[in-house]
Amino acid sequence: MTRLHPHRAFWVVTATFVMVLFASAAPSPLYPVYQQLWGFSAFTLTAVFAIYVLFMLVSLLTVGSLSDHIGRRPVLAMALVLLIVSMVLFVEADNVGVLMAARALQGLATGAAMGTLTATVVDLQPTPRLGSAITGAAPAIGLAGGVAVAGIFVEYAPAPRFLVYEVTLALFAALLIALLVVPETSDKIGFTSRRHLVTTLAPQVRVPTAVRGAFLAAVPALIATWSLGGLYLSLGSSVVARIFGVANHAQAGVLLFVFFASAALTSLVITGRDAAGKLAFGYPALAGGAVISLAGVLGETLPLYVVGSVVAGTGFAATFLGALDSISAATPAQQRGQVFSSVFVASYLAFSLPAVIAGLIVSHIGLRETVVGYVAYVLVLAVVGALTTATIRRRSTRSASATTPVPAESDHAISARG
């Protein structure tokens, strides 16, 4: 079978990346509809969110490095098939149990896909600059599109509980067919024994020794960015509805869209900077945007909240991209699936755990107080990350200075002094 040119295949994989995140965010605007229809509690709503993340983390921890052994295409095909089945379950859902089953299956598929998609994008990138832009922009574009489109469908489209999933199902089917002509980018090294297979699939975060330093240095950036993203997706709808009084689902979706759209745009325009430059810009923007958004919440000033969302979105993209670039530069090609899966384990733990905790305590201490505590947590992470980055950069500069040879004096200069 004729394979696509790597440059065209790159865009097929990019579209798949975007759609996987689009599908993961699409149910969010529909949660109030489900809650009203089936009458479940806020705790149950938190459980629906948590089960998706739990199954995604299980998938990342077990099959995250599988594409390094059997190839990228089989893992992506398996993930797309599972996503198609999960969309069918969403369409057929008539109670909370089926909804949770759909989210669990979607979590398994997304976990299998995320590290593999990132590795495949890097494998196929026409240039490092474009690859960096896509790995940073694709998640933001997908999340933004899922929230905005689903919100518009809920407000204006017929059968909103079904249409967004039917459209997504059709797009996944088209991408699965397109995957047939995408070239394989990873050597199929297989497994040396049954024990090797079992060890590979055992739940654990595996970061090669050579990459560990870059990975650990990037952890504060990963946690700070995805924690803030979790704040917008978990409490954002409640903030928009209860504090700013926005009852229109489409308008609420657009307000959440602003944060991720700003992140996507920043990812595309900041690629010319190196990792350190991105982090130097990203951390202050992340912290500043979070503070401005919080001021908008406390003052019930919607324009200020929107401005803060834009600034925070730019910080999200720059910080996450800086962290991803530093990790990518240290990772050998044959270990990309493993390393990028570990990246998303850290990212989605940061994305989900604070959001679940916030969902559990918001009814006890209030929405504003919960948002204040959440933003304070993000600010602490941003400060820690910025200090870590500055320390590493200072050490690198000293190391480079120490290893620079001192030019020897010429015979002419010595004789001139003599």
Short description:
The protein has 418 residues and is mostly helical.
Radius of gyration: 23 Å
Number of domains: 1
Strand portion, in percent? under 5%
Q: Indicate the mean pLDDT.
A: 84
**Major sheet size, sense and barrel closure:** none
Global shape: globular
Number of strands: 0
The CATH homologous superfamily corresponds to MFS general substrate transporter like domains
* Amino- and carboxy-terminal Cα gap: 78 Å
Quote the CATH topology. Growth Hormone, Chain: A
What is the CATH class?
Mainly Alpha
For this entry, give a set of tags.
mainly alpha, Growth Hormone, Chain: A, 418 residues
Write the layout of secondary structure elements.
Layout: H1 6-25, H2 31-38, H3 42-63, H4 67-70, H5 72-92, H6 96-124, H7 128-156, H8 160-179, H9 194-201, H10 209-243, H11 249-269, H12 275-298, H13 302-330, H14 336-365, H15 367-403, H16 411-417
Helix pairs in contact: 1-6, 1-7, 1-8, 3-6, 3-14, 5-6, 5-8, 6-7, 6-14, 7-8, 7-11, 7-13, 10-11, 10-12, 10-13, 10-14, 10-15, 11-13, 12-13, 12-15, 14-15
